[in-house]
Amino acid sequence: MSDKHNQEKPWQAVRTEAMEHLLTVAGIIEPGRVDDIVHHYEKNVGPHTGARVVARAWVDHAFKQRLLQDGLAACAELGIGGPETEFLNVVENSAKVHNVVVCTLCSCYPWPILGLPPAWYKSSAYRSRIVREPRRLLAEMGLDLPANVTIRVWDSVSEIRYLVLPERPANTGHLDEAALAALVTRDSMIGVARLSSPTTGTTQP
Ligand code: FE
Questions:
Q1: Active site residue 107
Q2: Which of 8, 26, 80, 192 has a Cα at 20 to 30 A from 155?
Q3: Where are the beta strands (DSSP E) in 63-178?
Q4: How big is the CA angle at 3 (ends 16 and 29), to the nearest 5 degrees?
Q5: Active-site annotation holder among 75, 94, 108, 156
Q6: pLDDT per residue as tens digits for the range 1-33
């Protein structure tokens, strides 16, 4: 790799490539293994995976109870799981309680359920402000919660990841599970957004 080639890349990319090369030379990983993993989390797994879980919880009360009790075991019922999540704590929103997830230390996120985290989730501004002034930051992100809604902020760690179970929007009684899943956004499962009713466009309180 030439110096000119390296100069065109951020230092993080150069360091990552160097580590990958060393691990390959040492026989610790197979060539292309890292690419396979990145491709899997970029293409195969994403917010649509978590949306399936949420929609199932909305239509199947017994599943929802199992999900709230042991998130990972319930996800496994749907064939969902994988590395980077040893324990999944699912937290349910209601009219009076709003949950939001952060990793104050770094960027821990439920990869097998939501895919890779968005860039803002890893920013120091989000990681600090969502703890210090969650209501104000959520409002800046477009979620203006009424004063009587309690905000709970959950701090992820490497062993424990969180998934917000958003409220089912109003006027969705006629929708099947797949149509419900299509309503669920990534941000609603992190907790920086609530879901709109498909017919009125209004968000839940
Ligand atoms: Fe982390």
A1: yes
A2: 80
A3: 87-92, 97-102, 150-155, 160-165
A4: 30
A5: 108
A6: 445 555 678 898 899 889 989 999 999 988 888
